[in-house]
Every structure is written in C-alpha cells, then in structure tokens.
Amino acid sequence: METLQLIKFVKESYGFNVNSLKKLNGYDNENYLIDSEKGIKFILKKYPFSKKNISLISSENDCLIHLNKNSNNSYPAPISSRNDEYLKIIRSKKSKYIIRVLSYIKGNFLGEIKVNESILRSLGECVGNLSKHLKTYSNDSISSRKWEWDIQYLNLNKKFLNYIEDPNEKKIVLYFFQQFDEFVKPKLEKLRTSVIHNDTNEWNILLNKNKELGIIDFGDLTESQLVNEVAICMTYASYDKLNPLYYASLVLKSYNKIIRLTDTEVSLIYYLMAAKLCISVCNSAYSKKVNPKNKYALISEKSAWSMLKYLIKISPIHAENIFKKALNRKINKPKSVKKYIKERHSIISPIFSLSYKKPIAFDSAAFQYMFDKYGNTFLDAYNNIPIVGHSHPRVSKAISYQIKKLNTNTRYIYDQLYDYGSRLIRKFPKKLSKIYFVNSGSEASDLAIKIALSHSKNKNIMVIENGYHGHTQRGTDISHYKFNNKRGQGLKDYIIKVPMPNTYNSIYSVPKNKTGRKYAEDAINKIDDVAAFISEPILGCGGQVTLPKGYLKKVYKEIRKRGGVCISDEVQTGFGRLGEYFWGFEMHEVIPDIIILGKPMGNGHPIGAVITTDKIAESFSKGVEFFSSFGGNPVSCAAGLAVLDVIEDEKLQENAKNVGNYYIRKLNKLKKEFKVIGDIRGSGLFIGIEIIEENSKRPDTKLAQKIKNELRKNRILVGSDGPHDNVIKSKPPICFSKENVNEVIYTLRNILKKSI
Ligand code: PMP
Fold this sequence. Notes:
By secondary structure, this protein is an alpha+beta fold.
C-alpha cells in the first residue's frame, strides 16, 4: 500500500494531519511512526486481514486499555478512530488489512544503549509491575492461545528442528527439549498462571530521558506460567553479557521485590531461559529458510546461540543456587561427599574403587560437561564410554522410544537386530561378516576366546603384558594388567605372555626403528600351541602404548601359520575415536579374525559384540546353542544405531582427528617447555602423556598422580595408567572442542609451573 494512501487514510479515519510517516521494523506485521501536525507521535500498525488477527489484535488492545488504567506512559495506549473504533479495515488492490493506531512511547531501545546494572534493576521492577498489573486481567481469547512462542508449549517448536543446519547446534536444542519434557514440564503444569507479555526483549523496552522504562509490542501476549515472564526478561537482559547469570540475577532480584516467586519457580528458571532461547533459535532457523530477507527475525540469533552454548556448560544446580542467593533464599545443601562415601560403603564393597583423592558425587551431565551435586561443572577429558557425549538426546530418545515399544531377546525376530547388526558389519572389511551381541567388553572378550578355542585345535592363549580385556574369570586369565597385580591370581598355565612393545622405553637396546621388529620376533619365539592371540591396537591400561608399525602384521602371520586366530580388542579404540581410523586395527594394516567391541558402542548403554569370519562362526556353531538374555535386545540395538547415526551426522570421527591433532600439537609444545613430560602419544582423541623424572626416562608416578589430582581440583577429569601409573590418559567424548583442549592445556601448564 502506498504511503500517501496511508496518510490519507489516517487523516480521514483518525482526524489528524500526518507530517511524516516512517516505516519501522516488524516481525510479522508492518509498523509506521507517524509524526502528526501537532508534534504528537503515534504508531500505526498494519496486519494482514484474518479472523485470527482480528481476535488477537482486539485482545491486545483490550489488554493495553486495562494496563493504561494503572499506569501512564509505560505501555502504548490504543487510539480510537473518529467513529470510536480501535481497529480499522482497509483494502488495497489485492489485499485486505487491519490497521490500528497506538500512542508513542518515547525513549531509546535497550538494544541501542549501553545497559548498566541500574537499568537492569529498573527493568526487573518494571516487568514486576507489569506482572502486578496483569494479575487482575483475563481474556478468553488470550487464554485460548496455544502457540510456539509460549514456553509451556515448547514442544510445538520441534517441527523447526530440522531447519537448524549445524548438527552441533541442533543437538543442544534437542538436549534442552528433552530436559524440559523430563524435568520441567511436570512441575511447570502445577504453577500459577497469568497473562504475560512474553517478549520483553531489548527491542521491546524503552528508556526515556527521565530514566523511566516503557514496554511495547504486546503482540506475543499469552496466558502462561507467571515465572515465564521473568525468565524471558532475564534471558534477554543477560544473553549478550560475559557473566550472564549475574546480570540475570539483577533482574530477578528486583522483579521478586514486586512479585515474590516460589522456590519451585526459581528452581526452574535455568531451564525456562534455555527453553526461551531454543524457541528463538528454532524460529530464526525457520525464518531464515522461508523469509531470508527478514533480518528483524534474526536479530537475536547470534546472542541466543552463544547463550545456549554457555548454558550447556552450566549446572542447573549452579544456576538455581545463584538465583536463590540473589534472593537471599536457603540453598539446598546435599550431603557431604564423606557421607555419600560412608553410605556407599555400607552396601558396596571397597573393591569398587573411587577415582581421585577427593572423589566426586555427580548429579547430571551434558556432552563433554559433567555436573556434581554441588553445582560444579567438570570438563570430561577422560570418559571414553559416552563417545558422542553424555546424555546425547538422540541416544536417549532411541532408548526410550524402543523400551516403550518392544524389548525382547534374540530367540524372536525383530528389525533392530538385523538393522543394527548389518549396519555395524558394513563398517568392517568384508571377510568379517558374523556378529554376536553381548552386554559388555568383558563378555565380548570371554566369548571371543570361547569362539577361538572352538575353532583352533590349539590350547594356549597369547597375551601382551599390561593388556586388559575384562573382569570375568576368562577375562582375568587373559589380562596381564589384572593377573599380574600384586594381589592378582598370577599367570595361568594356558596363558603365554609377551612383552608390551614399548618404543618409548624399550627393553631392547636396538635403534628405535628396529624395536617393533625385535618385539615381534620375541613374541613369535614364544608362540607355542596358541589358539588365539589377543591384543589392543593401543594398550590403554598399559599407558596408551601404540603397537609399533609392522608388529601385528608379523605376529598375526605367525599365529595363523600355526593354527591360531588373531583377536583385536577394540573396546577402547573403536568407533572413530582414533580420528584417522574408525577401528584401531586399521592403523596396523591388518585384518583380525575376531574383533571385540564394548564401551562406546551404546554411549553408556551396556552393549558389546564379537565380530568374526564365516568360517570361524561355522566352527562355533557346531557347539551348544549360544544365547545371552540381553545381548542384541532391541533397546541395545536402538542405542547402537543411534550412536552410529550421531557419529556420522555430527562428523565426529573427523572432529576426533582435527581436535586430536590440535591437542597433540599443543601437548608437544608443552613437552618442550616441561622436561617432566617424556612422551606424548596416541591418535585422535586417545592420548597419553608420560610423566618422567627430568633428564631420564624413569617414571614419576608421584608427579603424575599430583597432576591428575590437581586437574581434578581445577575440574578437569583425566585418568592415569601404565605399569607405573605415570601416564596421564585423555580420551574424552569425541565432541570435545579446541576450546576444551585450550582449557586443559592452560590448566596443565599452570599445574606444571607450580609443581616443578
Ligand atoms: N577391553 C578393554 C581394552 C577395556 O578397556 C575394557 C574395559 N576397561 C574391557 C575390555 C572390558 O569391558 P567392560 O568393562 O565393559 O566389561
């Protein structure tokens, strides 16, 4: 519609001359600033005609009339036309529009000025007053509104999820959707409700010269939980700040002076803020696709994403504590760690060890972050089981969906067994074509040996020193790491052990490029009636020791020649962690006869597998039936499938390679600075840092333990291992970022500076 036509319309309908008419930004309607002849300003709003819009705008006007009874100049007042109408309908060539005029609220948008603490305090008060004024207001049309921008209906935004292109961003939104369903919605539904403004963002709040605040744009009015109003305001007040929770608390504190929030309401604010941000980014992603020219719809997108990425690192308990502290409320104090330990030891034997001198009591976790019961965030640089990240929403969803539908065993037919099994098998060379599902790495290694013994006529099992393959009796028999322990059972007579081929600290005085061959020859010399040779491609418990190039090739050849089979334990090294390789055996250019899988396979859901050739499977099939009650159940298969999907969709193997290379580069730099770092080794995000006494290769166990415990004090989780427990192990979820690496390196450098 032409500007001149609008000016004419205003004159005719409202009876004042228009000096100028300027188009303003609008989300899904057009807004104009009118300068009238008397110097009075008005806002004209133009909407596409629809019954829905008529109803919404009438309600908005009704609410504004109510609010203007309580306040002057804080909220726009609807201006009636000459014939006492608040809404006018006009027609242009093709379309019909609704027009309304509002009084003009003077001031600068908070979005265009530097917002200080005092303004944020006033903002909380201003929104508190708004809530007070709206407490006595109700409107059937507003109450019946059920739409995407109302936090209580967060789930309506799920349809926009696929518009978020970056899988690393999408997973955060999906995570918060799930958290909301599980931990917020049931509580939210019981809270008090009110009509709320629902969009107190920095472009809807004005500050005038007298430092008074005004609120505009009531187009998002809705009846929702009252606490959503302050949560939304806190979000926008803090989402572009460095310390968001502090600024959010300022708003909360002054709001609470006007409207006292209950403890339950305060406890949900963290999640409600996240929910609001999720709504915002979902709608931005959608807008970008359908209306790429509407820049206004994307105005808050960048800040919203950075705040969501900030919140994912924050413990919900921490946020609740900060908010409660700001309100002088009692903070829930969990038991002391000492009490937790005492309780645990009353039923759990101390044979289950606890990590660190100061053990940690955890409450929840998200991707590479773990949150203890006291609200602290720990960066998980250690845990290799949740390979795609703790509480990954796609894995949680797959498990929860499947358990609600069907969970049974391999004696029946169901899709998941074949779907997952065939998908996994495709990840291996063709000759590895049969799969057995079990429940853990231990069960897998136990079964692998059973299968090998059924196939080979030989009797003995050859293992590498410091190798670890499981906790069952057979697992212990084949794990030098366990049986060789001071308190261990010792070497069984059917076990042949060969030295760990350590190229950094070799037992042979031959040039470095010859050590691999020497170790291989040594192993080959020990082959005697061997049914199976089992090894990890990189020995985790041995201290992240990578087998030297050519070692496996030589040993495998001899083992096979003498009737044995070769087993690769990929429990730690599998599923893309090594970056360059999806499986550890690939780095040694061999194809094993049997492979065992576990740990990361279900991202924490207990599932393991044995994979072998047709021929070996055939030998095993001649024996008694193999059945595992839970092995290969539909829920476990669904978890496994989701893990593979996530690794592929989030390009996590590539991430393990990029971030791993960066990590190793940074560690090598640190090695040059600190002579106590003897060796940096590993591949991708499977890394070992060997700590030694300066100018020697002697292990410094004490220092390694100190470093590990100091990192824990700084809330970074790593492990330690190796025969002398002097190798720091880092094998984080493979969504680990370069920013996370920088944090580890920065802290490690500080610890090393202080420790030596
Ligand atoms: N093999 C290796 C290489 C392992 O690291 C482990 C566990 N640490 C296992 C097997 C046994 O797996 P689980 O603990 O799942 O039984």
